[in-house]
């Protein structure tokens, strides 16, 4: 992996862990310190961050990290819904019975753990189960362009969640239930039902985000 790609990954990790704040102005020197990369790698990373909408250049002020606002929420969720509607309909037709069974088992385990009492580890498990499910459906499209667009948008969605809509303890069970409804439709090999269950799930997530 090239240094600029390592720098990009380090930047996004710092952004999602809130070591970098939305709306913050940041210098190249600070980016060097945060990413642990050299100045050359940071300078090569910046055009990609700008292209992905994660930072912008402000005349006479420098680099500003993207901030969470209603426009970001609207655009990020609109793109997510567009991509995942196509993905879930395809997923229904190609996923194996064995993988569906594994998905159900993972979600039922995460739901049971959350229902028995939330701990940080259980919450992290539920969140990872959530992310992995959506990522897997996108990956099954076998389209690198869509995968790249989705991953970049996912950074923005997860940043929004860090503001207010991350997997909160009281939401863990309901989110797993929403996923299990999607999985039930996939088990039935019903693309229409799977798409409708997915839309209900993503609409719920978007509504939580709008309340920021």
Question: What do these coordinates show?
Answer:
The chain has 212 residues and is mainly alpha-helical. The protein is built from nine helices and three strands. A hairpin with a 3-residue loop joins strand 2 (55-58) and strand 3 (62-65). It is elongated.
How do the helices and strands line up, and which of them pair or pack?
Blueprint: H1 3-16, E1 25-26, H2 28-35, H3 39-51, E2 55-58, E3 62-65, H4 70-94, H5 97-116, H6 120-139, H7 144-165, H8 172-187, H9 191-210
Antiparallel strand pairs: 1-3, 2-3
Keywords: DNA-binding, Transcription, Transcription regulation
InterPro entries: GntR_C, TF_FadR/GntR_C, Tscrpt_reg_HTH_GntR, WH-like_DNA-bd_sf, WH_DNA-bd_sf
Protein name: GntR family transcriptional regulator
State the gist of this model.
By secondary structure, the protein is mainly α. Helices cover 75% and strands 5% of the residues. It has a 3-stranded antiparallel beta sheet.
Kindly list the characteristics that best describe this protein.
single chain; 212 residues; mainly alpha; Arc Repressor Mutant, subunit A; Four Helix Bundle (Hemerythrin (Met), subunit A); 2 domains; 3-stranded antiparallel beta sheet; 9 helices
Low-confidence stretches: none
Count all strands and give the number.
3
Tell me the β content.
Answer: under 5%
The CATH topology of the largest domain corresponds to Four Helix Bundle (Hemerythrin (Met), subunit A)
Rg result: 18 Å
- CATH homologous superfamily assignment of the largest domain: GntR ligand-binding domain-like
Helix content: over 70%
Number of domains: 2
Query: What distance separates the N and C termini?
Result: 37 Å
Mean pLDDT, rounded to whole units? Answer: 91
Q: How does the overall form come out from the CA principal axes?
A: elongated
Q: Sketch the topology as an H/E string, one letter per element.
A: HEHHEEHHHHHH
Keywords: DNA-binding, Transcription, Transcription regulation
InterPro entries: GntR_C, TF_FadR/GntR_C, Tscrpt_reg_HTH_GntR, WH-like_DNA-bd_sf, WH_DNA-bd_sf
Domain HTH gntR-type: 1-68
Organism: Roseinatronobacter alkalisoli
């Amino acid at each position: 992996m090239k240094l600029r790609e390592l720098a990009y990954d380090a930047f996004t990790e710092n952004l999602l862990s809130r070591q970098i704040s939305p709306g913050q102005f940041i210098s190249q020197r600070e980016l060097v310190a945060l990413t642990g990369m050299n100045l050359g790698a940071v300078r090569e990373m910046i055009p990609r961050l700008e292209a992905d909408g994660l930072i912008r250049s402000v005349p006479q002020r420098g680099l500003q990290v993207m901030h969470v606002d209603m426009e970001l929420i609207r655009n990020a969720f609109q793109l997510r819904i567009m991509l995942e509607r196509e993905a879930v309909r395809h997923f229904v037709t190609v996923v194996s019975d064995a993988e569906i069974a594994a998905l159900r088992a993972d979600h039922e385990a995460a739901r049971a753990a959350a229902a028995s009492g939330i701990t940080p580890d259980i919450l992290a498990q539920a969140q990872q189960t959530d992310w992995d499910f959506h990522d897997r459906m996108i990956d099954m499209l076998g389209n690198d362009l869509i995968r790249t667009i989705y991953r970049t948008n996912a950074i923005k969605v997860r940043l929004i969640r860090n503001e207010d809509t991350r997997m909160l303890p009281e939401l863990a069970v309901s989110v797993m239930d929403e996923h299990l409804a999607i999985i039930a439709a996939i088990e039935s090999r019903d693309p229409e039902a799977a798409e409708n269950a997915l839309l209900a799930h993503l609409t719920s997530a978007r509504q939580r985000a709008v309340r920021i």
